């Protein structure tokens, strides 16, 4: 799988598009707003830059794309007005892989101004917006040029599917009938995924360390694992239901078994300990804040109850959400003809699962500050 070409959310504005099914990403951004506000103001008050550079890594497209930009401009404008500080010029970079629907972003720029200027208590901050296609596992900016990085719902995506998951000769693949870590996965599957995450996250930290100014910060949020059992994590349950749907189609001859055996997600949901271990081993950043919260699978369910009110509707809502994320990869590997049937079955599997357990998305959130001396 060529991840950089295939890993992008479903574009456009249709019913199965990411733009129409990205409510959870918006909830994450709103949830971490206090952390963002603290990071932005500490960076600004300590450095007082005339020009402030902020980058949103993994911006995708849709109603949430400008949410971080809007919040940053309002926070800076409000604080500068209250404290009598000089307004900086702000440059925002919106980054994602080249397959992202950047056209949709640029076409939406006209509506941005009303959102940014909606706070009467905030001073008018001059800002400029640029798109930046590329992988955040590569260098994206000149050295010491960025004041603040933000990334939500992106760092769980790996730079590649871990090597070693493919079948070798007459031997079955170690993750047969699964697309991610599952109860039936071989031990080596867990190690391969954890090692790939460690390499990728380490590289991400090194790249951002070189690009941040001294005193610069990062606010990151990504899917993680709350359960101790790595074989039974919350995301293992979710992807397991996709696997179940694909396996049922294999049994009916709708999907080739070899196709399923050769499909594994470039994804890993780490525990908090896994993520913290990488940060500490690199020694490049101080951990300012580190926490976890949860969101329901159904993006339209904001309740904190441990049960669902309508499991069939929640199954359908969850399926649309996951389809908006997986469809490009599924269509490329298995063919577009199976997509509707696959996610119809997946919706039923999710509905049945939610009756037994209302599993949630664990979200790891952290704020990191570039160390002054290494």
UniProtKB/TrEMBL annotation:
Gene Ontology MF, one: metal ion binding
Keyword Metal-binding: yes
Gene3D superfamilies in the record: Methyltransferase, alpha-helical capping domain, Vaccinia Virus protein VP39
GO biological-process terms attached to the record: methylation
InterPro entries: MeTrfase_7, MeTrfase_capping, SAM-dependent_MTases_sf
PANTHER family in the record: S-ADENOSYL-L-METHIONINE:CARBOXYL METHYLTRANSFERASE FAMILY PROTEIN
The protein, known as: S-adenosyl-L-methionine-dependent methyltransferase superfamily protein
